């Protein structure tokens, strides 16, 4: 309906504004302060980044209740893919980076934010135009092709950020829990993160396969002809 389409357009617009502000802020700060700006990235844009990532949880709901009709692949599959991608970011951003101040000043945080926001600026630009029935082939190609290259790089950056954080979780005991009697085991959080690393890289194969399928669904010869017409 028109109301739902307008709601999705406003949602995409809000996300576009947020990620554009982050992306522009990062570039301007780097051009102004050089490498010194990298260590202060989280403190400068961390709040807006967290708000954008929390807001992105709504995208899973959009797919599940069927108001987002732009997905060509099965709804359940898309919900799984988006859930995994959004969960990745939330875990790394809120659990790994936000909880360890020592990690926030690492250069890998800047690299990770750059990759995330580059992808999202392109994605939300494409989404907004698609809501209005406007399809530019170069933008469509960029949206469904660049993610195949940048997503594995972002997974590597996430993995590196987790590895960098492990010594701090070991030293400070953050999130590690020793269960009281009668339980006889403890939850050592660095082990949880190491297991999550395996899940992260295993899930990457599934996500990349889905990205290729989505690219074919949108950039197949028939779809390109339909969008041109």
Written account of the structure:
The protein is mainly alpha-helical and 229 residues long. It has one domain. The chain is built from 9 helices and 2 strands. β1 and β2 form a beta hairpin. The protein is globular.
Q: Summed up, what is this model?
A:
The protein is built from 9 helices and 2 strands. The protein is mainly alpha-helical and 229 residues long.
Topology summary:
Layout: H1 2-33, H2 41-55, H3 58-64, H4 75-97, H5 101-104, H6 107-131, H7 137-172, E1 177-178, E2 186-187, H8 189-219, H9 221-228
Antiparallel strand pairs: 1-2
**Number of strand segments:** 2
Number of domains: 1
As a whole number of angstroms, the C-alpha radius of gyration is: 19 Å
Low-confidence runs: none
What is the arithmetic mean of pLDDT? 88
GO molecular function: very-long-chain (3R)-3-hydroxyacyl-CoA dehydratase activity
Family: Belongs to the very long-chain fatty acids dehydratase HACD family.
Main location: endoplasmic reticulum
GO cellular component, one term: endoplasmic reticulum membrane
Q: What are the defining features of this structure?
A:
single chain, 229 residues, mainly alpha, two-stranded antiparallel sheet, 2 strands, globular, fatty acid biosynthesis, endoplasmic reticulum
